[in-house]
Amino acid sequence: MALRARLVAEALGTALLVATVIGSGIMATQLSRDTGVQLMANAIATGAMLVVLITMFGPVSGAHFNPVVSFVFALRRELGWSALAPYVLAQVLGGLAGTAIAHLMFGMAPLMTGGATRTGVALWFSEIVATFTLVLAILMTLRHKSGNVAVIVGLVITGAYWFTASTSFANPAVTLARAFTPSFAGIALADVPAFMFMQGVGALAAWQAERWLAGGLSEESSDV
Question: How much is the pTM?
Fold first, then answer.
């Protein structure tokens, strides 16, 4: 597949993902004052849209929509290093476009400052756990049940909204995009770098864990 088509898929997929995250958060706060209901609506919408987006764009670009996922695939030599920076740029620009799309649908300015303060050791550790879980799920599912990746990713993110204190951003491009909304899904721009760093740590840990697990499986197969 031509790089141009792959980049368009990454940008469009990330835009629609962010529009879903932010748009469903805005809608949820308009329809309910219960924060639990708001989070549930946000989680279900995001997980469902991930299944759709990965199913649509997976055959085109791999449907990464996430710089740390692209980085891990480059480490695995499944994405050329020369394509990594363009992939990340497409994801970042797509994410910002997604914020603008969500805002415009609800009569807001395209990009706005603000967002919730999200900082502290518990939230940083949560981002390591969330990203580790996401990336390991992708890698292990590709190894054993590659056709199930879309559903697995959707389920992981839906669950991680609830079991992590950070509500599972797990994606540097999406994290940055969410720094430009004052809505339910937002994050303060000053808190973005720490989240991104922890997401990178989680992704690298998942890459190493999958390599170790794959080595163990290979040894077990050779012993049979």
Answer: 0.94
- Cα separation, 199 vs 211, whole angstroms: 19
Sign of dihedral through CA atoms 126, 197, 81, 83?
positive
Q: Are 13 and 63 in contact (CB under 8 A)?
A: yes
Please compute the mean of the pLDDT values over residues 25-31 and round it to a whole number: 97
* Residues 46/204/72/12 CA torsion (nearest 10 deg): 30
The residues spanned by each domain of the chain are 3-223
Cβ-in-10-Å burial (0-12, 13-18, 19+) of 157 comes to: buried
- Average pLDDT of the chain? 95
Q: Which of 17, 90, 103 is nearest to 54 (CA)?
A: 17
**CB proximity list for 1: less than 8 A, separation 6 or greater:** 60, 61
pLDDT tens track for 180-196: 999 999 999 999 999 99
Q: Is the dihedral of CA 40, 43, 49, 52 positive or negative?
A: negative
Work out the average pLDDT over 192-216.
95
Domain spanning 3-223 has what CATH number?
1.20.1080.10
